[in-house]
Design a protein that fits this description.
Strand content: under 5%
Helix content: over 70%
Family: Belongs to the sigma-70 factor family. ECF subfamily.
Order of helices and strands: HHHHHHH
Number of strands: 0
Pfam families: Sigma70_r2, Sigma70_r4_2
Protein name: Sigma-70 family RNA polymerase sigma factor
InterPro entries: RNA_pol_sigma-70-like (IPR039425), RNA_pol_sigma-70_dom (IPR014284), RNA_pol_sigma70_r2 (IPR007627), RNA_pol_sigma70_r4_t2 (IPR013249), RNA_pol_sigma_r2 (IPR013325), RNA_pol_sigma_r3/r4-like (IPR013324), WH-like_DNA-bd_sf (IPR036388)
Shape: globular
Structural class: mainly alpha
Radius of gyration: 20 Å
Largest sheet: none
Keywords: Sigma factor, Transcription, Transcription regulation
Length: 162
């Protein structure tokens, strides 16, 4: 049986259950439907679907990751909107620019996911705040050599993501 046929069978047998499971956690039927679709897109994107003894446990595991990413995106958007609210109206970006910036922030967050917090922080201080190695070292309480290692690690993550 082909991978897509396996995913189709999984979808037909368990989509309704997954949608209900997500709706109970989110309290929003529209978001639940979106995240259920995202879950199956991840399954479809996998090289192969393993032989599933417990398909609902498998789907729930993937859905929990999708849900976690959903909450992270919401937190990021909330923080961005709070930062925008602090800006004077005349320098605040237009709606289109806001959407582009938010999407870029979400992609950057996803790209840096899995790096140690201090590595992420060093990278963001360098790239977003424009701080130099010595300033980052003082901010984080680490040596310049450690700052360089952290920035190299983050840069390698970015390079290999491309």
């Amino acid at each position: 049986m082909s991978h897509s046929a396996t995913v189709e069978g999984l979808y037909l047998a368990h989509h309704s259950w997954l949608n209900t499971w997500l709706r109970r956690r989110l309290g929003c039927p529209d978001s639940a439907a979106d995240l259920a679709q995202d879950t199956f897109i991840r399954v479809l994107g996998a090289r192969e679907t393993p032989l599933l003894v417990e398909p609902r446990a498998f789907l729930a595991t993937i859905a929990k990751r999708v849900l976690c990413n959903h909450y992270r995106r919401q937190d990021l958007e909330r923080a961005y909107l709070e930062a925008l609210a602090q800006l004077p109206e005349q320098v605040a970006p237009a709606e289109e620019e806001r959407a582009i910036i938010l999407q870029t922030l979400q992609e950057l967050d996803s790209l840096l996911d899995g790096l140690p917090p201090q590595v992420k922080r060093a990278f963001l201080l360098c790239q977003l705040d424009g701080l130099g190695y010595a300033e980052i070292g003082r901010e984080l309480g680490i040596s310049i050599a450690t700052v360089k290692r952290h920035l190299n690690k983050a840069a390698m993550r970015c390079y290999f993501a491309l």
